[in-house]
Fold each of these.
Amino acid sequence: MIRKIVFNTMTRKYLCIIPARAGSKGIKNKNVSLLKDKPLIQHTIDVAKRIGKNCQIIVSTDCKKVHKIVQKNNLKFYGYRPKWLCGSYALTKDVVKYELNKFEKKFKLKFFGIILLQPTCPIRKTQTIKKALNYLNKGSFDSVISVCDVGSQHPYRMKVFKGKYIKNFMGFKKENMTARQKLPKIFIRSGSFYIIKRDTFLKENSLVGKKCKGIVLNGLEATNIDQKVDLDYLKLRLR
């Protein structure tokens, strides 16, 4: 006989997921690389702890070193992430769905929203996260994400190779030589945080809903570490 799971709805309760797999092509052991004498992931855990009591923190990993850091922080660990979610091409949304489903089934509860904090964005202000949560709690938006200005990397200036020729990415017939200051403002996801209502995430199968609020980050808060040069540059700026 199959028993139906009855969820206890917890108003405004968030599941905060910190994804930290072991493999990394850009930087070996990236999530445990040191920044200001602390592992990279520790900076994200510190922010997650300050969000508030209605935030359940889960570190999703297959890494033993990360597991030890979780234990040092007195956070509960609910098992390693399966291998099929640890490859270079594993989608973050699938990791989130797996952890959400596992946790809700285990504890028979239903979250209001999901917070995704990636360790590769170690510089965050707690008040920025709380500001984002307020937007979601008020009900006008179904998701909130961090973005930053593309700056000089504007798509109007981008190129693609077509055969032996280089062409305009945007398909312009003529070269766009407009001054950068006059180009339309365009933003890109910075990766610092994704916050979305649980039901919206499951319905849309995406970390970005149709009624999404963007919060623009600047300076160090917009940093996203992908390559070693990114980490070295951040260390230099923090000095």
Amino acid sequence: MDLISFINSQLGPRLGLFIARYISRKQAYRLADWMTGLVVKREDSWVIRGVRANQSVVRGIPFESPELDKAVYEVIRNTARGYADWYRAVAGGPEVLEQSLIIEDRLKERVFQSVREKHGVLFVGPHMSSFNIMLLAIAVMGHPVQALSYPDVRGSYVVDNEVRRKFGVNLTPISFKALREAMRRLRNYGFVMTGIDRPDVGGEPLTFFDRKVVLPVGHARLAIRTGANVLVGRIEDEGNGYYRGKCQEFIEPELTGDEDKDVLNLAQRIIKICEDLIRESPSEWLMFHAIWPDALPPQSDEK
């Protein structure tokens, strides 16, 4: 088993969680940087090719350009350090988790205002920085939240989800049952979170970085059908294990009576905001799946 396969297996996060109890943050970062060096050497791996293709599109640089070497390294390093922070926060318990997240006052106020006006809140955003820190920190703060995740749960995701549930995150892989639960929660002025920047065969073609790609629209349909407000934001790395929850835009969905049109318009508006967030800090966009297949050069043994 190579390093990438090990990291993505159930053994990877279990070992990370164990080690985090006994080493300092400085030592954890050194270990993360060492592993980053090993991972980026595997230029033919699906992880590196996916990151390189995505960064190529986002930065407007050809896939083969040496300029992308640094960009790929930064994405992998930020991922590794983010997991180091997450494992250390989990090892430290609820108090450390809560202290790890700074929530902007603007974000808090918009959420409270939405609830006062009897609207649920749907938090959506791209996979940036340590989304895990935010999920767990909000849960231990005592705010009930449902997180919609991808239905295909294997390898390291199994352990990640075990940890999330342990700290009170109501994690529901996307299904008809999970979506019904999300609708009930939002209609009762509750809080639902999900990522929306990974291709979805059940989605619709949206324009993302000037290219068409089939992306999720279920979040937009939830908002349209429940009257929930949409908070589009991200997590920012503040350094030394601290992260900030940022509200980029708060959307009150527009209803014209044509649900399908309203859903597509809202989904497109949201993904454009996410595009702007990624452009601001592309090295914190921790997406390994190749979003645009045509950005990948041909490879005979493509996985």
Amino acid sequence: MIGLILFVSLLGFSYGRTGLTWPERFVNDAVGTVQEALYRPVGAVSDFFRDLGRLSDVYEENEQLRQTVARYTQDKIRYNMIENENKRLQDELHFTERQKQLYDYRYLIAQVIASSSNPYDKTIKINLGSNDGIKPKMAVTTVDGLVGLVSTVSEFTSTVTPISELDSASADAISIAATVLGREDQSFGIVDYDKENKVLQMSKIDENDQVVEGDLIVTSGLGNVLPKGLIIGTVISNQVGDFGLTHTATIEPAAKFDHLNEVFVVVTSDVDAP
């Protein structure tokens, strides 16, 4: 009842007034000062938590951007790999078409599935075997040049011995009969690998045969081992051979043996089709 009476009295006292008494102004200013002092830290705390919420949103956006960039990078790498592979396959297709126009050969494309790390047996393995018509002593080449010969054959895979590993001193040595492109009826020699100097050499060149630097050496087809016309390499020097009766040319191999991906097994017309 006392509270109600005071409330009604104050209501009646303040009704119709337009101004405040000095106690009311004092109380109002004091309350305003306290409110201002409290509002700033409360506002700062509120802004802090609001910034935390925004920081969380920014973190999520950055995470999404990182994932997008990672996917873009992977797609770009994949695209470049596909583009390079397509270019390589197109070059190989042009290679086979060009060779088909020159000689009656078939080229079976094979993937290199293994490469021996044994320094005394640097062979490579391909994914074609006897079921595909592969036979020993078939020539293996790339778009650049001759790689080697098929040495052993199983049903689904074959082993290829590079020309740098052919042993001319062995009993079953295979001689690579070679000639100069454009002078097939004039030039003749035997190509083997000089392991000491790590270069190919074309020996037994006639003293009247002027083999010069830059000549392109290809297989001659003589000996019925390797088909003719397969690129071996380029002459980089020529010197007098044994007793001054013959010449020996040093040859830089055309094939690149370090990173072989695809190779071609050369099938001649006298070999049964697979």
